[in-house]
Write a structure and sequence with these properties.
Blueprint: H1 11-23, H2 26-64, E1 68-73, H3 88-93, E2 98-106, E3 111-112, E4 126-130, H4 134-138, E5 142-145, E6 157-160, H5 162-168, E7 178-181, E8 184-192, E9 204-208, H6 209-215, E10 224-229, H7 234-245, E11 253-256, H8 258-301, H9 303-311, H10 316-353, H11 361-388, H12 391-396
Subcellular location: Cell membrane
GO molecular function: transmembrane transporter activity
Transmembrane segments: 29-51, 275-300, 321-345, 357-381
């Protein structure tokens, strides 16, 4: 006696049959896949942009160094402003692991675009005395003109920070560029780029230490001291800087590490990233509901096909596998489209910001895996429902 058995469907047959079902409804498939793609693109974009920002920060810190410490005066026990001793720079420079020391000092002078600007409209720009080695220690750079030198730091010449130049309307340095500083004309000899490790320089008009004392009523006390330290001794030096700068009142000294501020700023972005990831997850869930809706409607519309396939010998398992394959293919199309869209968004935004474009491989693989899981869950019920239909029931309802 010959026993007839139903042949098993090969993998390529499953894919072919599932793909045929999708090709029959291209617009509905596109809209359902778009929901999945938006969710994956949102999640991948958040991860990619965050990774690109982190990589940019790492490159900045690698270029600028994380071994810069700053010392500034704090407050007295009575809440009054204190000042650093005149010997503070020299004493800090005697610490063995300290490789270089420089300083700036705030003057009472104000700076304006010209002598007709009202005195109250300062633009929040400070006039700051600076040592000649300031750029070397802080990592700041000049984008126009030049930095103060042994000649210009004794004369009415100034270098503007990036924001200060913008607020004063100075595009580039030159002999014809002058600002009204401290009640007299100063020539703008240079303009700085933004200084990540010393953001206070961005809003400053920097002048030489000698000219500040001679013409701007500067008292000569440093308000910020910058110290470069051997990398392996940064923590140890930070612990003794206060007592070294002001042995009599170490509690009136504030010590900070600018690179920690940049890292803290990066950490605060994690909260926003978590929120955006949550929104991406919601979008992905909505996309999964769209896939489920498409598959349920597909089962209802294709009862005749299901009945015909069952009457021709297709088993319940094959029907279930067919509709599950359609759901997985639909989700995979959306997932791959979302990955490509997320990479495009990340690349475009990173290029706009001047960052390196970084899209973690784990995020891309995770995105595709998430879509397959969503597709499997979304297609399970429609596939089971289709498989439970008897041939006579399916054909009778057409």
């Amino acid at each position: 006696m010959t026993v007839l058995t139903t042949p098993r469907m090969r993998s390529r047959d499953v894919v072919r049959v599932g793909g045929a079902g999708l090709r029959a409804r291209p617009l509905r498939v596109f809209l359902s896949a778009l929901g999945i793609a938006i969710g994956i693109a949102a999640m991948l974009g958040v991860v990619g942009i965050s990774a690109s920002s982190q990589e940019d920060l790492n490159r900045q810190l690698e270029a600028l160094g994380t071994n810069l410490l700053t010392v500034s005066p704090g407050q007295t026990l009575f809440g009054e402003a204190s000042h650093l001793p005149a010997e503070a720079e020299g004493m800090i420079g005697q610490i063995a692991p300290v490789t270089s020391v420089t300083a700036t000092g705030t003057t009472p002078a104000k700076v304006y675009r010209n002598d007709h600007v009202p005195a109250a409209e300062t633009g929040s720009i400070s006039v700051t005395a600076a040592r000649l080695d300031l750029l070397q220690d802080t990592g700041a750079t000049v984008v126009s003109g030049s930095w103060l030198n042994a000649a210009t730091h004794r004369y009415p010449a100034t270098v503007l920070g990036a924001k200060a130049a913008d607020r004063l309307g100075v595009v580039q340095a030159g002999p014809d560029q002058r600002v009204w500083l401290g009640g007299q004309w100063f020539t703008v000899v240079g303009v700085l780029a933004a200084a990540p490790l010393a953001p206070e320089l961005d809003t400053a008009a920097l002048v030489g230490w000698p000219v500040a004392e001679e013409r701007l009523d500067f008292d000569g006390y440093a308000t910020t001291i910058y110290a470069r330290v051997q990398e392996e001794h940064v923590v140890a030096v930070r612990d003794v800087l206060g007592a070294t700068a002001n042995p009599e009142m170490p509690n009136e000294v504030d010590v900070s590490r600018p690179s920690d501020v940049l890292a803290a700023k990066q950490a605060t972005d994690a909260t926003l990233n978590a929120l955006l990831l949550g929104l991406g997850g919601v979008a992905l869930l909505v996309g999964g509901v769209g896939v489920a809706n498409t598959m349920v409607i597909s089962v209802l519309e294709r009862r005749a096909e299901i009945g015909l396939r069952r009457s021709l010998g297709a088993t319940r398992g094959q029907i279930r596998l067919q509709f599950l394959a359609e759901s997985l293919l639909l989700s995979a199309i959306g997932g791959l489209g979302g990955v490509l869209l997320g990479i495009g968004v990340t690349t475009a935004y990173a290029s706009f910001q001047g960052w390196p474009a970084i899209v973690p491989v784990w995020a891309m693989l995770g995105g595709v895996l998430a879509t397959l899981v969503i597709g499997g869950i979304a297609g399970f019920y429609p596939a089971v429902r289709a498989a439970r239909m008897s041939p006579t029931e399916a054909l009778a309802t057409t």
